[in-house]
Amino acid sequence: MNKTYYFDNNATTQVDKRVLQAMLPYFSEKYSNPSSIYMGAQAARGDIDLARKQVAELLNADSSEIVFTSGGTESDNTAVKGVASALKEKGNHIITSQIEHPAVLYPCKYLQLNGYDVTFLPVDRYGLVDPDEVKKAVRKDTILITIMYANNETGIIEPIEEIGKIAQEHGINFHTDAVQAVGKLPVDVKKLNVNFLSLSAHKIYGPKGMGALYIKNDSKCLPLIQGGHHEKHRRAGTENVAGIIGLGKACEIVKKESSSYCKKIKSLRKKLKSMLLSSIPDIKINEHPEKALCNTLNISIKGIQSQDALIMFDQKGFCLSAGSACSTGVPEPSHVLKALNFPDSLINGTLRISLGKFNTEKEITLFSKTLSRIIKKLRA
Ligand code: PLP
Asked: How many CA atoms lie less than 13 Å away from 152 in the CB half-sphere?
């Protein structure tokens, strides 16, 4: 296989070898069901408890507040639908933003179809939600505010702490989708004033199909998945033990190492940005001057179709994303860039580069040269 240059770390990340090593025994000798009573099973239960502690420590939460899920999507769905059903006697109004991930937007739209009232707040040209707009949108019957911590497409960082304070002052539950923030920003649930927080293992060098939802102890939320008594009745189903161990290990590594690898990623991003600006005419960097994730570079290039660029990049072994998703054969412009009022012509020429801890300076230089060549060809 040809060498792959991976610049799509907001889509997923390579599993850290230490995470893989920690997981492997749970597929072979340590395969007991943690709900059984024999010793091997109880050992697995103990290992799950340790992983829960590792996740809790990263978030400054208590272990009892961590519920394991199948990923960011399930965590988001649980928070949105679980709070809505638990509090439906209290009210039926939810506040969210137009740039949320589909894992929040679609449950909100589903609730809308089922009698709930949802306010989808607009954002400014960078994608920022204005806390004053949140305050204005609050009503007597508001039961949930859900705003993401950082956006997966543009890397904008939302004012979560401020919005959390507003929610707290009004006694409203606050959920944040922190799937893209964990491992890149400090995530302290107490400081952020959140009742619910979603995270995903595969965005932090852990396994796919694994995530967690932080539920502040006294916060009401009905389970999305019903069945057995697992996760203290908050999420039924035999535990994905290997996945849980992997998530725990990934969180432990984030806690110890993320401030140092984020520094490296930030400097790679800076270098890449300056190389692109100096070598490609008519390029626009879509970023907030201060509130940008250390790893995400969203760029719009005049006179190209990003889908064509992606194919040419792929032929050279480069993986990255576009500002439009092509799931049906016809590229759909990104709802995030649309909310930022980008014209379709600009969205169609948008690329998302998302760096990770395994990227190197050499790869950055190679990427920049390759992009230059591709743009020349496409514009010709
Ligand atoms: N939320 C955000 C912001 C994301 O970027 C993603 C994945 O891209 C998700 C939620 C969904 O997470 P998962 O892939 O673990 O279901």
From this structure: 25
